[in-house]
Amino acid sequence: MTREIRAELTSHNDLKVRSKLRLGRLVKVGGLVLGSSIVLGACNLPSFAIYKGATTQGRDTFHLFQLFTIISIPVLLSVFVPLLWAIVRYRKKDDSIPKQTHTSIPVEVTYTVIPILIVVFLFIVTVQVENKVTAVSSHPNLRVNVVGFQWGWKFNYPAFNVTKVTQGVGGSSVYPQLVLPEGETTTIHLTSNDVVHGFYIPQFDFSRYALPGVNNYFDFTPNQTGTFIGRCSQLCGLYHSEMLFSVKVVTPSQFNTWISQQSHSTIGA
Amino acid sequence: MTIAPERLEELEGQPPQHGPEPTGIFKWLTSTDHKVIGKNYMYTSLVFFFISGLMAELIRTQLFAPNNHVVSPQTYNELFTIHGSIMLFIFAGPFVFGGFANYLIPLQIGAPDMAFPRLNALSYWLFLTGSITMLLGFLTASGAAAFGWVAYAPLSNSTYSPGAGPDLWIVSIALVGFSGIFTAVNLVTTIFYLRAPGLTMFRMPVFTWNMLVTGILILISFPVLTAALIMLYADRHFGTHIFSVKGGGVPVLWQNLFWFFGHPEVYILALPYFGIVTEVLPVFSKKPVFGYKGLVFATLAIAGLSTGVWAHHMFTTGTVLLPFFSALSLLIAVPTGIKIFTWIGTIWRGNLDFKTPLIFAIGFIVAFTMGGITGVMLASPPIDFYTHDTYFVVAHFHQVLFGSAVFAGFAGFYYWYPKLTGRMYRENLGKWHFWLTFIGFNVTFLPQYLLGLRGMPRRIAVYGPSDGFTFLNEISTFGAYLTAIAFVIFLYNFWISWRKPIPAGDNPWDGHTLEWATSSPPPSHNFHKLPPIRSLRPTWDMNHPEHADWKHHQDETATKKVNEKEKAL
Amino acid sequence: MAQAVVAAKGGREPIRFNKPTILGVGTMVWLGSEMMFFSGLFAAYFTIRAHDGKPWPPAGIHLDVLQAGIFTAILVLSSVTMQKAVFEAEHNRLRSAKRWIVLTFVMGGLFVTNQAVEWHKFTFGPQTNAYGSLFYLMSGLHGLHVILGLVAMIFLLLRMSGKSNDHGRLAVIQSVSYYWHFVDLVWVALYACLFLLH
Ligand code: HEA
Ligand code: HEA
Ligand code: CUA
Ligand SMILES: [Cu+2]
Description:
CATH architecture of chain B: Up-down Bundle
Radius of gyration of chain B: 24 Å
Shape of chain C: elongated
Helix content of chain B: 55-70%
Distance between the termini of chain C: 48 Å
Structural class of chain C: mainly alpha
CATH superfamily of chain B: Cytochrome c oxidase-like, subunit I domain
Number of strands of chain C: 0
Number of strands of chain B: 0
Oligomer: heterotrimer
Number of domains of chain B: 1
Mean pLDDT of chain B: 91
Low-confidence stretches of chain B: 1-16
Shape of chain B: globular
Helix content of chain C: over 70%
Bound molecules: heme-A, dinuclear copper ion, copper (II) ion
Largest sheet of chain B: none
Largest sheet of chain C: none
Order of helices and strands of chain B: HHHHHHHHHHHHHHHHHHH
């Protein structure tokens, strides 16, 4: 099986991911989960294996995710530490009957109120980030129409009459590439011809459904150049796992050169 | 509010008592005794758990290596569809709601049987037929359903999923759904109507409370699924246009209807297990439940909230009101947290006897807390945009589901095993079962969080060697095999205690609730004599008069107030 | 709870339960789930309608609002006759109760028959468009419920012809009446949505 993108990405992705991902990561995250206290310097927070987001929108998501992860550490500890304590400390020693405590109002109030406060805080930051991530610019630098179909993608640049599409279906496909200019805002118009697909670019920290009969719009403002893998995330039938594409972010001038070299096509989207 | 069971027949002409019981195989086939039906449910769903578990092992074997060819992509899609469907509809739900609830609710409330014994038998037969129908799909020419347990339209219509397999899936879910609805009607009525004298609502064990609330959730959510399934079936066979763009239908309507059912469903699968844990922890700590009323209200709050959060499964559709669904989903953390902390409060300063049920219950708390917290992450739309439909979600729901259905489920199984059989299981084998499961489970699912964050979508039959997924998948598969060994040990334990029985006695754990006030196993009509019910723990009161709950001042005044309130109503 | 008090045999005093019977409670609980079932259908109706944006029923769909209205009235009245049967039974006047149930049965039967006639007459089918699909599915599923009610009445009549000291009988009559009222109520909502709403 030829997987163009995968080959292309091997050097870029695999070595880095593999070396990092191995035990090191496991131990690191596992360690955090178990409560090894890591001093979190404000400017050098760990990324918890989360992609940092290669777009400004994705970067916001990354920071939000980071925040959630950090908050979940004390929350986890608030359960695990007392639990462990109880397991160790109150192990049965004799047949005596312990004091029959039924409740304690202050304790109950505490474990109701503190979670409410945490949740309210989480909601506020969520809404802030959500508004940024879902904002659609009225004057984007570029528009791309994306259509998902069984089993491939069609990328259409309406202003330039350029279309890239998956060729072949299943094992021998040639996957299309979505080229985007760095630092500029692209509005994607996403829909589907047949069933539901998921337009998912892990390193943009983002995905959105391609739904038949629904037009979805969202913005990408890439903040670094590079080639990233894209996948279909929503089960769409037999070759769902092969519905790949790639995203190449280039400088605006490179983008202009690239687009002018493309053969114009009349296939609209 | 309540009446002595003997008087019912005379008053209603609808004796909730089952007739004389046949023996042998006919006993299992024709019984209307809730205890027999309950056991039937339990053993049937356990068999399906193993079948579905074996499918999971196949899934993991396929994912062990990149570009693997253990099964074809088509078979792979069928496998996870049926694995998920069996685990949720045929194992996790019926195991506890058809099995434990059926067996235990009449005992816990001091009733002779369920309200409608024959309806109960019908439920079981619908369930069994539906479960077998689920497997029949594999025998059809075009294979079983392969559209995931959520059956998103339009993938599930006749254009994209032709053949009889998908139809069998629809019929199977509908049958099992009806069975669930009837059981819910039965249980809710039983709990409202057949409580023994003195057993007020606020003296009901938390297990019974949770089953009541679960029953109500089933009555709210399953019929909506039934309606959706009928419309899907019509789309497939009668050419209607409910879920197809062509003709004016709306595909996302399916998602809305499905998740309106689907989210309450996950709590239908969790609340009963919470109930089990709330029975096990007090008994093995020799203490009452901590913050009983808070716990009851938390259960009600969870049920209320869970009907309003469905679209958190649809954040990435771009068609739902994000802040609303996000807010309600985040809020569910609060009542769930109350539960977790009351459990810790229950074992706090107790006298913890680390028998198998207790360690399974603690395993549940550990797994569920982790899974719950990643659930809270998913409830934040931007984070969900990133992780939706990846292994991050797979890891989330296995932690909560496996945590509930397996850890809490087996806590209950070991706890009530002496009640069901009059025999004791082997303690050391039980501990082996726990530790292997606990390690295997974490080794299987913790790496999946990382896989999700690295961009591995769910429901993919193959991944490439250069994707960087290989190593973590290897670990995960290894963990799944470990879990399988754990369940072989469980089966051995079951077998040995059957062949070489050790009598358990009627009340081996010094249990608190009414089911421990009768013999083990209980007689056909459940009780010869009921102890007086003056508190939440009648059996404890009877066996420990010096520490009786009703003497507890605060509790007594509280009960008085409740009594007055109930009278006023 | 249920003291099935004052059952003055053959006398004037009505038999009343000062609390619903166990069967009554069960029926109510089950009707709750039935309500959610129809809610699912209504949710589909309103979603698709909102999505369509155009006037409903769509052009080319012709409905006889008056004819359906008449039979709606008949169905609603059958609720009254059913309730009358319950009162009669409560006063232990079984034969009269039976007659009222037969009348109810006839009215329900008329309603279903009319539905069959209408279905035959319509120029649109379930395949025509989403409205047609919803129309047939919703009225059809409701029709099935009516038929189920009719079947229940047959069994009820048989049971009422049985032994005279049948204590459970009244509870069954009441439960069937709950069900019948529910089915009528749902139809009123369906009639409003499918025929009247524009
Ligand atoms: C038993 C089943 C179960 C349970 C209990 C839960 C519990 C929760 N789930 Fe989960 N979920 C599933 C089963 C379950 N889930 C399944 C099966 C899916 C996938 C379906 C599919 O697509 O196939 C899913 C998917 C799923 C999604 C969609 C993901 C996606 O597809 O993109 C979301 C998003 O919001 C979510 C959220 C939550 C939340 C917020 C909770 C909360 O209820 C969790 C609350 C618990 C805690 C938070 C822990 C304890 C609390 C404390 C210690 C208090 C303090 C805590 C805080 C202040 C944070 N779940
Ligand atoms: C209660 C629910 C539940 C439980 C307990 C499990 C248990 C397991 N699940 Fe499951 N899973 C789901 C519910 C559940 N799952 C759901 C809802 C989905 C989503 C489906 C979808 O996408 O539509 C899913 C999907 C799912 C996937 C994702 C597939 C994909 O997206 O491509 C994976 C992959 O690893 C997986 C693995 C496992 C494993 C390894 C176990 C193991 O822990 C299983 C352990 C059990 C055993 C190991 C039993 C062993 C049997 C024996 C020892 C029997 C001995 C035999 C004889 C005597 C004959 N599951
Ligand atoms: Cu397209 Cu998966
Ligand atoms: Cu949910």
